[in-house]
């Protein structure tokens, strides 16, 4: 009887056509060393002729691998988790692996429960996604499989963490403003307790110091990550220093509020004051008037980078330390030359 075209080719059929046992065919397809070279060549040729696609679960059982990775997050509802997850899924999909997603919602008890569940499902490795680009306690002592931290740095230097390069992103913003001829640059940002806020301020200050320029306003204006704070801080800055000609804001929400305040004060953007944000959060960046120049964290690529490092660790190439993932400058009308 002729096999129906829609029916998948089985390992048994490959073995029969190649004249070997199912066990030998499996060893040949999985590059096991205890198979004669001519036998392996024959099995591979038959598999290619029949367009044989090995079942992922079966391969996992043979290799001792589940072909799954756990992704543990604390903020699935936030704006950072989804793009990182997409990048992780894309990279793991290229390696024919899948993701089991767990949201701890910032609860330590829930987090431990999720870890136990993932280990019971025999995941090959784990990606721990931070809810902020900050240092967090290592989980490695509780987890017997490789772990990579994404958008959050483990406090154990023996772990591998992939974090956003906020210092470098701020340098991109500052150099862009200087290239436009802006010299009275002020900085409005979020809570000082966030490392991202401190790093972005540090990157700006380093560029201004190298150019021999002071920070307008004297020091960064730390506050909430909100439009309201952007409006309030802008009014205070302009009252204290009417000569400010550029605002670098620590988030797009803050920058959106800053532009509102500048309009209320009769300042033209970008002619009188150029404004640049951070995050490339499109709901703010593209709806701002004018559209907002910003620094994109490139979170999908960050997630893909974390996944590739985990795959490498599963293949025996384990790295430690911190990988700083660069952002990119997105120029829109809020910093266009006047």
Question: Can you tell me about this structure?
Answer:
- This protein has 338 residues and is of the alpha/beta class.
- The chain has helices at residues 11-18, 22-29, 37-49, 56-63, 81-94, 108-120, 166-179, 195-210, 227-240, 252-264, 282-285, 299-314; strands at residues 68-73, 98-103, 125-129, 135-136, 147-150, 153-154, 160-164, 185-189, 221-222, 246-249, 274-276, 294-296, 321-325, 328-330.
- It has twelve helices and 14 strands.
- A six-stranded parallel sheet has the order 2-1-3-5-7-13, with helices on both faces.
- It is elongated and about 85 Å long.
- It starts with 10 loop residues before the first helix and ends in an 8-residue tail after the last strand.
């Amino acid at each position: 009887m002729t096999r129906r075209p829609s029916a998948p080719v089985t390992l048994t059929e490959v073995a029969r056509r190649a004249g070997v046992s199912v066990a030998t065919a499996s060893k040949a397809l999985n590059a096991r060393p205890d198979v004669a070279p001519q036998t392996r060549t024959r099995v591979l040729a038959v598999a290619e002729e029949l367009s044989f696609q090995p079942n992922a679960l079966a391969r996992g059982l043979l290799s001792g691998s589940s072909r799954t990775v756990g992704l543990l997050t604390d903020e699935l509802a936030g704006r950072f988790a989804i793009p990182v997850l997409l990048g992780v899924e894309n990279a793991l999909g290229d390696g024919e692996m899948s993701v089991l997603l767990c949201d701890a919602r910032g609860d330590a008890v829930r987090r431990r429960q999720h870890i136990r569940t993932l280990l019971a499902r025999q995941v090959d490795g784990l990606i721990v996604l931070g809810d902020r680009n900050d240092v967090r306690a290592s989980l490695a002592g509780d987890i017997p499989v490789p772990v990579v931290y994404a958008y959050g740095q483990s406090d154990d230097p023996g772990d591998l963490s992939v974090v956003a390069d906020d210092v470098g992103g701020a340098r991109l913003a500052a150099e862009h403003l200087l290239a436009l001829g802006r010299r009275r640059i002020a900085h409005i940002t979020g809570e000082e307790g966030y490392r991202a806020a401190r790093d972005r301020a540090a990157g700006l200050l380093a560029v201004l110091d190298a150019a021999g320029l002071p920070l307008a306003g004297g020091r960064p204006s730390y506050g909430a990550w909100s439009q309201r704070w952007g409006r309030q801080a802008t009014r205070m800055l302009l009252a204290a220093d009417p000569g400010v000609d550029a605002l670098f804001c620590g988030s797009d929400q803050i920058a959106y509020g800053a532009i509102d305040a500048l309009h209320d004060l009769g300042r033209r953007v970008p002619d009188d004051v150029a404004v640049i944000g951070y995050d490339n959060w499109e709901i703010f960046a593209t709806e701002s008037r004018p559209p907002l120049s910003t620094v994109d964290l490139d979170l999908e690529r960050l997630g893909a980078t974390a996944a590739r490092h985990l795959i490498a660790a599963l293949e025996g190439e384990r790295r430690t330390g911190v990988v700083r993932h660069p952002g990119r400058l997105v120029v829109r009308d809020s910093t266009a030359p006047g």
